[in-house]
């Protein structure tokens, strides 16, 4: 074994003075190799710190060892995990590995709350992506409060009082508590007291009424077909195209696709929606394809039943399934036209959503197809009262037009008598 150089002896002596017995460092392929020995159980654990083992590195190595031991003592994690938390980019400088912490947080939530992947994507992932992005910026916040203060704002920089804001703050708070308590990162990242959390969430403040608030607008059939034809020509795009097309033709809720199966031209939906107003029973949904493509539902059912294309992953409730669909539509790599429709709707103070497809289905049936409200509500899976509350204007508009036409015809006949 080669004799140790003087600077190597100095580094090892400094670590020994700082941590007494049980912690040591040495060279391993040009990097700092740390070893920790537990006398009570007679076990040794080791890891490689991505700091160059060379002259002039005494302070960086000593600082790294101190931070690693601190994280271990606070969180109980093992030596290798402590190194991974502190050195995300295999560089000399200590830097919290937020991506690793996110992945560990996901495992923790799956193990303790049994959350599904769809729930993770729909509820947690969006907020955690924002945290990871902001922590990689030059002006990254340096405290937990600083992180949560930035999460108050929407993606476009606006500040509103909304459910989304509350969810972001709650998710960020839970994640930061996990990182500090379970993984041992610095306590300055702990969330602030509950009184501050309430202020950040704007609890008790009247919700902002945005120009896009209210009922989703109906989308014209020609526009729906443009969206349908704008999905990417790959497995992901085809999967979402199938889901979107079935929603156009059958007017069902996004989550119901998880419980749907073809039967002739019908879509049998074995799903019961339960709410404070009651529940809906399993049903057989009737197809109403747009007039420009009257056989679209047959093509889609054949695609579904043959297994040519699989439906995409959807959440286990209506909200998560709808969110998954909208996010897929908003990704330009999946669909190139939906964002255009969103912008056009916003420009006139409207919004579009998954329920826009349901409204279009009703319009197709009630106004263009002369179907009764009772037939349509049965196919949609809601009560007649709910149906008329949402779509009364469709029926009144059609009846009003017909009555005025009849009145004009009668007046025209009367003019001939004069």
What's the topology here?
Elements: H1 6-19, E1 23-28, E2 31-38, E3 43-52, H2 58-75, H3 79-86, H4 98-113, H5 117-135, H6 144-151, H7 163-182, H8 194-201, H9 221-228, H10 235-250, E4 260-263, E5 266-269, E6 274-275, E7 278-279, E8 283-285, H11 296-306, H12 318-330, H13 338-347, H14 354-368, H15 373-380, H16 384-417
Helix pairs in contact: 1-2, 2-3, 4-5, 5-7, 5-12, 6-7, 10-11, 10-14, 14-16, 15-16
Number of domains: 3
- Strand % is 5-15%
Largest sheet: 3 strands, antiparallel
Provide the succession of SSEs: HEEEHHHHHHHHHEEEEEHHHHHH
**Secondary structure tally, helices:** 16
User: Can you tell me the overall shape?
Assistant: elongated
**What does the average pLDDT come to?**
87
Task: Give a count of the beta strands, DSSP E runs of length 2 or more.
Answer: 8
The radius of gyration over CA amounts to 30 Å
Structural class: mainly alpha
Low-confidence stretches: none
Query: Into which percent range does the helicity of residues fall?
Result: 40-55%
Strand order of the largest sheet: 1-2-3
Ends: how far apart? 124 Å
Describe this structure in words.
The protein has 418 residues and is mainly alpha-helical. It folds into three domains: 6-95, no CATH class; 100-201; 221-358. The protein has 16 helices and eight strands. 30% of the residues are buried. The model has no long low-confidence stretch (mean pLDDT 87).
